[in-house]
Amino acid sequence: MKRRYDFTNRDIVSIRGFTREEIDYILEVSHSMEPLAERGSDMLRGKVLAELFFEPSTRTMLSFQTAMYKLGGNVIGFAEPGVSSVWKGESLADTVRVVENYSDVIVLRHPLEGAARLAAEYAKVPVINAGSGAEEHPTQALLDLYTILKHKGRIDGLSIILMGDLRYGRTVHSLAYALSLYDVDLHLVSPDLLKMRREVIEDIKDRIKVTEHTDLMEILPDADVLYVTRIQKERFPDLGEYEKVRGSYVIDLNVLKKAKDDLIVLHPLPRVDEIAVEVDSTSFAKYFEQTKNGVVVRMALLALVLGAIK
Ligand code: NCD
């Protein structure tokens, strides 16, 4: 490893809190976790992770649990706030100030933007944002980068398409910020209603080339990475608007005929109907592998914020 960074006690609220060098370091540490993910380790023995999930989750919640168990630690928490005192009206700030007494690190998913930031301000233990409304999902962006690096050997120089719900999808916000630290061509493809938030584009356009499209075919032939997202139905203030865009894009074998042979197709999952099942068995499909990579990346993050690796 070239340089080391001390992340002990650091909150991971936004990907914007990281420099490129720090992200590269996290990706290197993630790689070093591959053998430990196979055989296990006791690096975090005696440590407790608290998972507070105020929104549904499969991958993020279970991969954080797996990551903690693989490093010899323990996990507490809830995936259904209805079973905790939140249901009685407890505030997030109070919940966090209680849970920090039982744990060494908190992983939080919440429907409101700013929730992870607020929790981090109150908690004495590090807080990792596992999704804050439509705002950000920084650990997903790190595993997305890890998957790209694994298949392409680099991030610089790539042509990358982010496609789908760029307005309400939090993973694409974090990923766009992260990619803007590299030398990439970024193409944003979405129906007009689901365009990337202006503030994200304003933030990244001075660092990298960003173009917006409604027609995927304009740019698919030159792309190295196609990152597809689900339309975030649950975040639409008006379901009439959702009906206008539902099913408006589908990646299938016919679409992929126009792609480079070594294009990789990523998706944070869950998928609804935006990638046809027929794509799953092709060499393009890397979305299930992404879920596996989430374990080593989250092992690295837990080891780093808990000071087991400095
Ligand atoms: C995403 C999320 O929760 O933002 N899922 C995930 O964590 N992999 C994407 C989504 O829900 O569409």
Tell me what you see in this structure.
The chain has 310 residues and is α/β, with parallel strands linked by helices. The protein has 2 domains: 136 residues, Aspartate/ornithine carbamoyltransferase (Rossmann fold); 154 residues, Aspartate/ornithine carbamoyltransferase (Rossmann fold). Helices cover 35% and strands 15% of the residues. It has 11 helices and 9 strands. The strands form 2 sheets. It has a 5-stranded parallel beta sheet with strand order 7-6-5-8-9, covered by helices on one side. A 4-stranded parallel beta sheet has the order 2-1-3-4. The N and C termini lie close together (12 Å). The protein binds N-carbamoyl-L-aspartate. N-carbamoyl-L-aspartate (NCD) binds next to helix 3 and helix 7.
Low-confidence stretches: none
Named CATH architecture of the largest domain: 3-Layer(aba) Sandwich
User: What's the mean pLDDT score?
Assistant: 96
- The count of domains is 2
Largest sheet: 5 strands, parallel
